[in-house]
Design goal:
116 residues; mainly alpha; elongated
Length: 116
């Protein structure tokens, strides 16, 4: 049990099986509830709706509530790393195009190598 008292969380395999039984084998909600020991048909409807909208990905439980400060900081760090990587790629492309055009300006790539 998790969340609200009395509320049950079902594993992904149960959700997938319920969806399979309903859409492939054309079982009724009552048959699925009995076979998989699901307490109410509203839960099934929610899974069917999520599956119709997003496929199997719709059945995966998503984090609820406000994201943690740690996750936000990690996103900022990865964004900064991505910017450095893109800057390095741009500089490499500049070198490539200059060589293609016969230019020979030298670039210092050592400042970017710590990203890799």
């Amino acid at each position: 049990m998790s969340g609200i008292k009395g509320m049950k969380t079902y594993p992904l395999v149960i959700k997938q099986e319920a969806v399979r039984l309903f859409f492939e084998e054309r079982k009724t909600k009552k048959q699925i509830m009995d076979k998989l020991e699901i307490k109410n048909d509203t839960q099934l409807e929610c899974w069917f709706r999520a599956f119709r909208k997003d496929g199997i990905a719709g059945l995966i439980e998503k984090p609820k509530g406000r994201s943690s400060k740690f996750a936000t900081e990690a996103a900022v760090i990865s964004s900064e790393q991505r910017i450095k990587q893109l800057e390095m790629e741009n500089e490499l492309l500049e070198i490539f195009f200059q060589k293609q055009q016969g230019g020979g300006k030298r670039h210092n790539l050592s400042r970017h190598l710590s990203v890799c």
